[in-house]
Amino acid sequence: MPKPLLGGEGEKVFLLGNEAIARGALEAGVGFVAAYPGTPSTEIVEALASVAKDLGIHVEWSSNEKVAFEAAYGAAMAGVRSLTAMKHVGVNVAADPLMSSAYTGVKGGFVIVSADDPGMWSSQNEQDNRYYGLHAFIPVFEAYCPQEAKDVVRDLFDFSEKMGHPVIFRSTTRLSHSRGIVRLGKLPRPKTKGVFEKNPAKWTLIPQYARKHRVRLLEKWERIKKELATWPYNRFISNDSKYTIIAPGIAYGYVVDELRTLGVEHKVNVLKLSSTVPLPEDMIVKVLEVSEKILVVEELEPIVEVEVKRIAYDHGLASNVEIHGKDYIPQYSELTPNRVRTAIAKFIGLSVPEYSPVKLSGLEIPPRPPTFCPGCPHRSTFYLLKKAVNSLRLKPIYSGDIGCYSLAVLPPFEEQDIIIEMGGSIGAANGLAHVIDQPVIAIIGDSTFFHAGLPGMINSIYNDAPMLILVLDNRITAMTGHQPHPGTGMKATGEKARIIDIASIARASGIEYVDVIDPYDVSDAYVRLRKALEYVVNEKKTALVVAKRACSLLVHSMALRKGIVTPLYIVDEDKCTGCGVCYDFFGCPAIVPLSNGKAKIDPAMCTGCGVCAQICPFKAIRIIREGDKSWKELWF
Amino acid sequence: MERTMVLSRRKTINMVIVGVGGQGLITLGRVLGNASIISGTNILVSEIHGLAQRGGSVIVHVRIGEPNSPLVPLGGADIVLGLELIEVVRYLEYANHDSLFIVNNRVIRPSLPKVRAPSPQAILSKLKELGLNIIAINARELAEKAGSSLSENIVMLGALMGTGVLDEYISLDHVKKAIKKTLPPRWHEVNIKALELGYMEAKKQIA
Ligand SMILES: Cc1ncc(C[n+]2csc(CCOP(=O)(O)OP(=O)(O)O)c2C)c(N)n1
After folding, report:
1. Which of residues 249-278 of A touch B (CB under 8 A)?
2. Is residue B115 part of a domain?
3. Are the beta carbons of B134 and B141 closer than 8 angstroms?
4. What is the pTM of this model?
5. What fold characterizes domain A4-230?
6. Residues of CATH 3.40.50.970 domain(s) within chain A?
7. B interface mutation test: which of A178, A266, A271, A591 has the most B CBs within 10 A?
8. What 3-state class would DSSP assign to A269?
9. pLDDT tens digits for range A132-178
10. With A297 labelled, which of A257, A336, A627, B15 sits at a CA distance of 20 to 30 A?
């Protein structure tokens, strides 16, 4: 099939916001891309990786955001247009080089995409990364729809190069994960080779040079503000009204639609903003001069609002104009049509229009949290770990981490007592192990281990913090949609890569007890988990166990795609006693209870892992279809 | 400074597609997007990735016509396309009493210990008591008839087209072309069949 991302000029294609961002970078001739996956940013670099070979550009999944940032920054130092992308919390990981990049500036255009997650659809917090722009003196840009995202990102490379400065493009879940029709522009031939010109006064931030950079940075910030006066994606739409709504980024779309819903689109002015840090000050002053009342419709923190108020004060306009923002729009979660409608109605003194949603009473529906997929090796590992812990009568603290395995926080597993940030499992265990009496089990995924688990593991050996480190190695970064990592054996572009072996790293770091288990081999894995736990408890030393088995969702979808027959299991109704172990305590979604309590396997969902057959206390589950030979070879 | 906002007055159709992660809701959005390009209408589709895909509850917002923003307002859905009945109930606040419900006659048990799930009949009769406009489709059965139980989503898309609510914007033929553009070739035949079966079933129920 043709790749929409490589479509010709003028062609209209249906793109995810993230794909539009990727296309914008391609239209700017991006030559180097490095990132670490994270929802809602991931598809930007997935899209770029899928066309890297066609265009001859370098695209990589790096081991974490700091490394990704530094790699892209390095390429930009040599004059190659570079992009890095990460979720909002990824910027925390990359914050150190981010701060420095504003001091040194760059040679090639350097675009940092921060994909924020208002509403915390798949994140531990909803920080507003426009603050990073203020903090680091890096300008921040936004867009309201996929088309504009493409165009803005394309133009940002020119802007960055012209100013010799990094720029942040800030997306949010509802932009990154909205699909819309995008008209494509021209694809230039990318420049992939650069030249690094030695210049220590520019590229080395020793104090004597850094102090000079700091002064220059403040001057540059003023130049950037002036330059923004002509940024074409900021626009004042006047209706000769005394009322103005300021709508940064995605807010613009909601404001336009809700003004129309309320029938007042000709009664207020709208200032559409794409450059949100710093603000185009002259433009804001003009808006303040013609307005008596202003409403800033803004997602999350009052960043534009506070700046507009500051500008009003500095220009002596504060007493002429009433400025609203967070008093009308909640500071938490994302914008919605209803929130924006209510705020606008209040602002212009209309009654809030009623709507009558359908209400149903007298019917309880159960919640449906996400669960481990059928065949997920994590399910088996958690099931067996719990059994091992119970058999030794231990009351461990499970220091958990971020990944699919976080789902074990929920029943029936409840084996995640702490979840803070990536790598935090081993990190927090380094403290807990010294101050509590219970054993500590740090549970971490393979991608997360490479991302930020390694320094914590080394610390636990160095500072004698005994723990069981259980690495759930499903060979891939599953949570974010199956990106390869240093342990997978594959690069972002699909090329073969060397496998960096977790058990070997652990041994080389001085851990004496290292084991590798297969979660599908139930009795063997159980015995070995028990042994590792005994070692940690008795020897008071760190042990590391790798539970190694590829992500079943990925393997199963490969099998479906290739038409490979997978094994299938069935419940023997005569032997099944309806004990519920398989559907209630093991919790496989492919197994459902019949009205008599007996189990039934849905053949459309069974992946053939065979774990249920091994754990059934009554041996009531058996295989009825052997899979193709090639099925076994899919497990990488 | 521009004088007025340039806005078209064509009505925007608001639809929510609800179901369970893994049922192919995102594919439906992609097919509708490509169908819109072919037919020359504008569309915005908003979805949630990540955690929600792991068998969790999923809602996809689809706005066809002249949308500038991605979300369907509460009480603002013209159409609820439900791939699973518990999820239809969960997202009822997006619907109003004039909404058209096109629902898959099926309940998927959430995999939680000791969970109690209402039956499809119980849910449907409750919804009908409210006097809602409902078309219920046995999508699993029709998908199997078409050749794959995985094509339930496309059966439901066929049913949506069969109701005629999108006729002003997208035709069945646009959707067929879009399926060929969106899905890998080896799935075309089954899915076109699934589409047609869903289409005819809805037509039959309306007649
Ligand atoms: C700093 C940061 N970067 C990225 C993410 C997004 N993210 C969540 S979990 C995860 C990794 C999951 O991979 P792995 O540890 O292998 O576990 P799996 O999901 O495969 O079980 C990522 C990248 C994040 N939460 N925080």
Report:
1. 250, 252-254, 256-261, 265-266, 270
2. no
3. no
4. 0.97
5. Rossmann fold (3.40.50)
6. 4-230, 377-549
7. A178
8. strand
9. 999 999 999 999 999 999 999 999 999 999 999 999 999 999 999 99
10. B15
